[in-house]
Amino acid sequence: MSGWNTIESDAGVFTALVEDLGVKNVQFEEILDLSPDYLRAIAPIYGVIFLFKYISSNPDDEVDGNYDFEAGENIFFANQTIQNACATQAILSVLLNKSQQTAGDIDIGDSLADFREFTQAFPPELRGEALSNSELIRDVHNSFARSNPFIDENTRAATESDDVYHFIAYTPINGVLYELDGLQAAPLSHGACNNEEFPHKVIPVLQRRIGRYPITEIRFNLLAMIQDPRLRAMEIGDLETVRREEDKREAWQWENALRKHNFVGFAHEVLKGVIKMKTREGKYGEWLDNAKKEMAKKMAERKEDGKDEYED
């Protein structure tokens, strides 16, 4: 069985991913302004996906929010049991708690509805195992990994010097604002919150999370799961918004295609052409020496940084 590969925190990637899973009329938007007015402008918001640098915490550290161990079958919550799956797991933490089957708003499609029903009575640990072992979910997730024939994500484990990043979800469920983090023991409650209150009640929670880091830390990413804006635009005859959203999706489709494409063959042909040209000009040796010096310089700079980025 193949493993799970790292995918990017990107609105186009996440939108296409959920569509490939069978979800209808859902889109992701990057949140650039933590203000209630900005969030209300893109409503309805089903939840937010937050990416941050993961820092191992001390068991005695105070947790923001309150563990809700009694949530049980009323909430879909799964523990993370495998590396690199947390992006899709965070997305599903919102989707499977907002499905029409749970009196929510989203048509999640037959496959995810069946998965939710199958795992409904499972404890969080077993739900996490079921998610990790789902061929459909894993294959769709991996289809959005960048093509890189020189790196095997299944064998290259993160080390202590690597920056590890983690995804979690925030969403209102049954009148409560929940933080759903597969690395926690249970959902974390942040108090009473309905769908209309979510845009302004989630902001202080996110600000507290960001406030745990030094002021110089800026490597965060926040994506909102929203209703496809084209639906509302078509209802009111806003053709300009419809065209703008269509153009955005065409750009996303192109970018996603580039992510999946392997350019090794193309690069090989280009390199052969350059070598042929340099040899004909009598500058092959000089060009090769310069290339070696430049590569040595880049390797030294990378060694000085001493860090690669990995998703938890």
UniProtKB/TrEMBL annotation:
InterPro entries attached to this UniProt entry: Papain-like_cys_pep_sf, Peptidase_C12_UCH, Peptidase_C12_UCH_sf, Ubiquitinyl_hydrolase_UCH37, UCH_C
Keywords, ordered alphabetically: Hydrolase, Protease, Thiol protease, Ubl conjugation pathway
Site (Transition state stabilizer): 80
GO BP annotations, alphabetical order: protein deubiquitination; ubiquitin-dependent protein catabolic process
Residues the record marks as active site: 86, 166
Family of the protein in this entry: Belongs to the peptidase C12 family.
Protein name stated in the entry: Ubiquitin carboxyl-terminal hydrolase
